[in-house]
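Support reply, case 0932

Customer input (verbatim):
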Amino acid sequence: MKHYMDWGMKNRLAQLIQADGKALFLPIDHGYFQGPTRMLEKPGETIKPLWQYADALMMTRGVLRNCIDPAISKPVIMRVSGAATVVGEDLANENLVTSIEEIIRLNASAVSMSVFVGSKYEHQSLSNLAKLVDECEDYGIPVMAVTAVGRELEKREARYLALCCRVAAEIGARVVKTYYCAENFEKVVDGCPVPVVIAGGPKTETQREVFDFVYDGMQKGAIGVNLGRNIWQTEHPVAAIRAIRAIIHDDYTAEEAQGLFEQVKAGKA
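Our regenerated output:
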């Protein structure tokens, strides 16, 4: 079987990464390990005012089947790793929890899974990534690897993130989602041969901090973001997503995004 970038793969990637080469993914997959996360108790309600501003939505099959109107014409990135929770022994002890048949049946444009580099379960999660890539490439479905660090936030420095992203790309991920780090983030992106999107991480104190790190990450080569809590856990989710979208697709600075945020918040835009 001849493996090259076939039409299906190109078409699905084009649905996710827009014509300008940029992307805003909105994840609502947090329940798969956190349970009914604050503001995500009813995922269908949470995304109602937001989904139109996202380029793709990321979620598990359970939420997709039960909470999302099939008439919504947004590509779905299906979260297919899981089987570990915040109350369990180790979040890194994940497995693949969704079959390739189910991925196709639910018409996912891409799939995502976490890899836990440097953890006790590194080998397991990277082997799972290889298996997922093998299965998905047969059907032209892109895999996004999520470089997870669990609770150990201090690990989020450039050398570690660069290692994780490169390894995920080497195994065959078509896109990598990773954390932003203030120092040397460009090294993370430059060392990764596939597009990088920025994960949100914990909610920040102010909205401006989000605009700052999104802008800086884009300047340093990221193609976009995969932000959840920094959008739907905020007081003004629509203003937040519109301002972030403007940084990604309209080249707004963090300052300009803040201005747009204030306007939308005041009902003037």
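We compared this against your earlier run and they match. Two observations from our side: The radius of gyration is 17 Å. The chain is about 40% helix and 15% strand. Please reopen the case if you see a mismatch on your end.
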